[in-house]
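Quarterly update, task 2.4: pyridoxal-5'-phosphate-bound model.
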Amino acid sequence: MSEQDPALEAQEPGKQRAHLDTLAIRAGGLRTPFLEHSEALFPTVSFVHESAEMAARRFAGEEPGYIYSRFTNPTVDMFEQRLAALEGGEAAIATATGMAAISALAMAVCKTGDHIVTSGSVFGSTLNVFGPQVMGKFGVDTTVVQGTSLDAWRAAITPRTRLVFLETPSNPTAEVFDIAAIAEMTRSVGALFAVDNCFCTPILQRPLELGADCVIHSASKHLDGQGRVMGGAIVGSRALCKETVYNFLRTTGASMAPFNAWVILKGLETLPIRMRAHSENALALATWLAEQPKVARVNYSFLPSHAAHALARRQQSGGGAVLSFEVKGDRAAAWRVIDATRTMSITGNLGDVKTTITHPASTTHSRMTPEARARAGIHDTLIRVAVGLEAQEDLREDLARGLDLI
Ligand SMILES: Cc1ncc(COP(=O)(O)O)c(C=O)c1O
């Protein structure tokens, strides 16, 4: 296999980095002796050694080479290298799903007696992993911070804290967290700061440049971008990805399948163009929604009316695909708007070229107590839209139909 595409030379130390649009297409291109143009898919469980001696050397780590696809695989390597280049990290490690990335990080980094700090508005399954169901069983306790107040984060982070984890902008209410400030607090106690960058992707937000130690992805979202395959990844230092997490993952087994890596790798090629188009469509829809008399409130970080708009503009280059809004009325009114759509898909997923619409209080956030939902601003009248790439007029018409009924 040849090492990498010439475009990547721009990544060598001292040379100027290639543009993100170029890295998305060219980084991590390993070419076989057949000189294929499109990246090769290696659907193989194991790799052959030329001799018993070579096998022994490879198993001992004395010679590079592939052994078994639970450990490493060339297609998965290409995906990891491309994502690492986009996030500006030294390395990446791919996982079977986004949740596999989050649980592998927590398990690999924390030990009994350690402490995690996270936000009350991270993805529900993430809260479950950090809570009594998983990490709590191993003697790791978690403080959940509600809201974005830096004082609350400062109070929660202690010398025992090993991992600080958040998502920004949050789902579904688009709270924006100050990555640089929380990175500083985390550094002061020597903990690891991880940002789930699913909603923005490296095209709109680069947490490592703002001081985070690692970035988490559910590759099932925008990285694939068409809702086809599951995947996840961690990006950060070589020691974190290729030693700490790799040693955990190669044994426990939630590695990424080569086919999924290939689909997502090809998805990355259109990520820059898609993320800009998602953001443009979402901002147009959010602006229109904010003008509608039946809409009480719109949550979207790139709307000038958003409470943290200035911070969002500083750390993001676009608002991303996800917005939420509250209708005037009750849950029945929100459901009427959802049921009246013809173009949008009623489904909980996001990060797809197809627009999706959901009622968080009765679906994705239904397991929270009503009090916790109220604290998080997830009211019965709230609707979340993950804006896809259909024509703006069709999306407006789809929501206008339902708004006219309430
Ligand atoms: C922000 C965020 N992080 C992580 C995940 C988990 O990803 P996966 O479903 O790939 O395990 C999700 C899934 O919806 C998510 O929205």
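Highlight for this quarter: The domain at 11-268 is CATH 3.40.640.10 (Aspartate Aminotransferase; domain 2).
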